[in-house]
């Protein structure tokens, strides 16, 4: 997975020799998981065929206001296209198209879509070196930047004219890297760091048995994805769980026992902006772990348990600790227990789950929470999917830290 995955991208291609590179760019974007719709200007059709680009983009290529190939003469609605896109890339952008983008001279579908698009627009100029240096071109670069458009600078090198200099369109890989970096930087939590614990812990009795609980790690995973989708770098410390965590901003570390989770948290906790402890940590572990399978003999078996370290409380006691979110799972006197827990563990926010609420807690895809802050305020939320609960929690964290 990468930053382009699932993105809806309009690729505008204008009439210059570099139009051939738009085929490679289309392929890279599709390979990266984006949905790509290509719009050609009439002049671009002399350089690259709609068939090539529709095959590579897996979508019909558009180049006029009406769809000539369609019996119904369907109108290609520039407003809908502009609203559909998460981002628009115009590559190559010729001097002619850029000047029309600046002045609002809307004489083809691409320019109509450009001027109605609400998404970020990137343009990759391509032209001969003297055109690139011409004052009208540089003035247009500045004007487009002042409209909020992102320019992907041209490179130096051999040009189609045979001359050498600045004006070569950036290579498709460079365009991918430029846009990818910008997309990351535009995310609201870009540069923020968050550590999350999730899932159950397993406390070994012997090589084949353990003490554990029913946690699946779904809530922690939803939190990790919500943060990562907003650009935060997430360290996810996960007890035994089969939930998939693949995301380019999530670094997952698998652990088994509470002690291992404790050690891993303390190895990574420094310099975190937020820490969210959603793991269902076993409070006790067997005093000893047998090297060999415990054999059945007497009618009863007594296992001595010793207390595990409380990971959340240990971070709550740190001097320079991150903004701290804990969970509390209660079965009775929920609010009273949760307030006491929040105080004892020194959390900034405590997320209370009551086992009395249907659809809350372990294994379900939904959750019902009450948020408790340091001042003793409690906000009750309705039953929601774990993804939406994660959004509510992260919205609250952001509200309280920015
Ligand atoms: N927690 C932790 N380390 C532990 C136990 C709990 O980090 N050894 C964290 C959990 O991840 C959760 C919070 O503490 O964020 C509360 O967990 P919970 O099981 O509700 O509370 P306990 O402290 O274990 O208290 P009790 O079981 O007595 O209710």
Question: Could you walk me through the main structural features you see in this protein, from its secondary elements to its overall organization?
Answer:
The chain is an alpha/beta fold. It folds into 2 domains: 8-186, Flavin prenyltransferase-like (Rossmann fold); 193-401, CoaB-like (Rossmann fold), CATH 3.40.50.10300. It is built from 13 helices and 21 strands. The strands form 6 sheets. The chain has an 8-stranded mixed sheet, sandwiched between helices. It has a 5-stranded parallel sheet with strand order 2-1-3-4-5, sandwiched between helices. A hairpin with a 5-residue loop joins strand 6 (155-158) and strand 7. The longest helix has 16 residues, at 386-401. It is elongated and about 90 Å long. Residues 197, 258, 277, 279, 281, 283, 308, 310-312, 326-329, 341 line the site of cytidine-5'-triphosphate. Cytidine-5'-triphosphate binds at residues 197, 258, 277, 279, 281, 283, 308, 310-312, 326-329, 341.
